[in-house]
Amino acid sequence: MENSSTTRHTCLKLEIPTTEPLFVKGTWFDTHFDLSVTDGLRAWVCNATEEEVKERAAQWDQSLTEYIELAERYLGFQQPGSVYQFFDAGDDYKRLSWTFEKEGTKLEWRWKFQPSPDSRKITAGILDFLMDANIRLSEEVVRKTQSFEKLKVEAEKCLEQSEIFTNEKMEFESEIYAKVCYLKYLTCSCFLLLFYHKFRIIVSCLYLTSSVQHPLFSNSLESPGTWLDISDK
Question: Can you give the pTM of this predicted structure?
Fold first, then answer.
């Protein structure tokens, strides 16, 4: 029984110039894979067994895992530069081929498809897979959109908080600057006031000293006429 955790599903809308668009659904396991193709009316299937895949891988000097990974890459997504073909192989069988380059050499892989015994079931299964994938994709888009809107709201809140913080920072800096200027003003005022008082003290001391050492000068201050009287004598 296959482990569902290692099973992968792909569905490719294959654009081939000479035919109508085809849908190629792949179910990929660790050692083998199943493919189904529909053009909307008819369907074809290819069940690649482990033995077949091992044989193909050995022909290309690849491991089983490498072969399946490369096949899944080219049948899960239409690769640019690769030439795809879906042509008749006789008895209503079809052959799907695609090209790729390896070490500068263009190579081609082919797998043969047999007509499906129930084309309607295969086509309906592919359409159901596409619808389910579209629903999952739509839900994922909705979730991502909601997450984006939530992140957008959070970003706007962060921006608003940042603007508030910036304004508060500017106001705080302005207030601090004003206080610093005021403190400088007070410091200068105190210094000038102290200098003024010291100057008055020094002047007063000089005045007193001058008055003691020169009584003549002192008398003249008390009475202007005294100096004249002394000079006359």
Answer: 0.59
